[in-house]
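Please check this:
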Amino acid sequence: MENLENSLTPQEVVKELDKYIIGQEDAKKSVAIAFRNRVRRQALTAEMAEEITPKNIIMIGPTGVGKTEIARRLAKLTGAPFIKVEATKFTEVGYVGKDVESIIRDLTELAIRIIKNEMMQESEEHGREMAEERILDFLLGPGKREEPQPDMEEHQKREPGGSHRVDIVYPPEQDSFKRTREKLREKLRRGDLDDRLIEVEVEESSGPIEVMTGQGMETLGIDLKDMFGNFFPPRKKRKKVRIQEARDILFNQEIQKMIDMDEVTREAISRVEESGIVFLDEIDKIATSASRETHGPDVSRGGVQRDLLPIVEGSTVMTKHGPVRTNHILFIAAGAFTYSKPSDLLPELQGRFPIRVELSSLSEKDLYRILREPDNSLVKQYQALLSSEGVNLVFIEDGLLEISRISHQLNMKMENIGARRLQTVMERLLQEISFHADQHREKPVTIDQGFVARELDDIVKDEDLSRYIL
């Protein structure tokens, strides 16, 4: 992890989150401080750092207000391994559900892919050079890449002033080979040879090995598919492909040789333990009040909480890559808590989430800002999509205000799904333009208040119809 000087300050983290998430300042501050505390911990002595645990967070708020997006953007911003899981996935644990420790195994696998991709990017230039050399070998024949050997004969020339200079003379055939290779290299880089066929060695793909395992086998940390796969190592075959395709095949082969998987695994486990983030969604669905504890699936819900407690509290999970400690993984839980409240969670689990942040419902003004301000706003997305077919969408201010007004109105009349309502409204609004995109290439398509009213008013007024369509 970065040191304090190079790491983002909490204010800088919030500023970056503001580019993608509108409002919810308290939640942004909480995750920014949680991130900064992890960096601060790295500056302490090993003894003190071990004692400081993450300040896990519970986000409380309706769907579509930015809970998941805040956690995801924080992870992307900091380069931390991030995984989102639904707590309800484990509701029937022991019957049809998954073992909660699979969260950490999945997070470790994700971290390995991240580290591997980072190492591939670092070695990309060298990998492409090696792939290029191998293509030249195929074109010129095997055994031609040795450095040219000089003739035994050396020519001595007398320089002015009486000194001697020795000229080494290379055999004519080696000098000719070198010139030919460089000419081919130039053509290869220009793409002149992309359609030429060469023969490369590739792994022969075989059908997947299906292994049926009983519930709980994954707790052993053993990948049975990998184990059986080792009994049948991949066979190789020679295949004729175009040079354009061969570049990627040979690049992947060369880059795999450069990556030390032991180093990848060590770095991935370290990153999971020190900077991993687990987002537990729908945690309110496993929070059960005492009056409902004894019937229905609630007994299982209490069991899920007890199973979650050790990994949130700090334990060691066995994976096929080695043991992973969860003591310093940051857990961010989220839920609407419409029919329950955080105090309905087990007291021990509540104590492991000391920070609670309430996210507010989105107002009409918030929806308008979501359309306009974020770097990845829906308006920019639709403009980019349709511009690929030459359609120029122009959104007028009053049109955006009307879209946000209708979206807020629908959220109030029906289920409040937050910013996701904008997606349903925008998709319906632009349906005809998107369907007939080829007919709108001549002039800009203006989305103003009148256009929005014509396309949506009838549906919005018919409440039964709007429940099905919007």
Remarks:
- Residues 143-157, 210-216, 290-299 have pLDDT under 50 and may be disordered.
- The two ends are 45 Å apart (CA to CA).
